[in-house]
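Session log. Operator J.P. requested a structure for one protein chain; no other inputs attached. Running the standard single-chain path with token output.
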Amino acid sequence: MYGLWIALFLKREDASQRTLGPTQAKLFDFRTVTLFLVATAGLLVASNVLAEQDQNEVNVQGSWAYTARKTAGAVEDLATTPAAEDHVWLLLACNADERLTVSLIHTEQFPFTLKPRFLVKLRSNTVPTALIEAKSVQNNQIFVAPLLMRHIMPLLMQDDELGVSIPDSDGTVHDYTFSMQPNDLALRPIHLHCFDF
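Structure written below.
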């Protein structure tokens, strides 16, 4: 089922890229890879499939799915884990320039309206509650401020769980819980290149 859905999605995205400019095509490419990774991760985690780490191959450690993607001679490391609630995934990406991307992705769209910019609340046992700036994209993806996350993520990845609270446009708060452990293999490349300590 996942294979057919991914094949149809990739075919549609490929057709879309031919009619778009380079910037828009790059955005579609990122969305394609993200959705592919999320769908594949769901399938692998559900079936407990483990694999040796290799570039462009999706591997699983605990609830984390991770891969190293090689494009244009550069490697981008990606790791994602699902929330206990709904169809929301926490995605970490570290590109060749050591730029960190932290996002929350709903596989369809969040069941509430998001403001373009807002504050998400992060909760864990290791880090005091933090409010961090975020921005939404098409009501299915939230990007969290990467510079602060470079400092906070090394601490968060030591904890068992990460709680994230997202306010909707009416001010109602929606909570998501992500399992963080184990992650020593899944987050190692991102930790080495994109975290500050």
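Operator note: The chain has one domain: 2-194.
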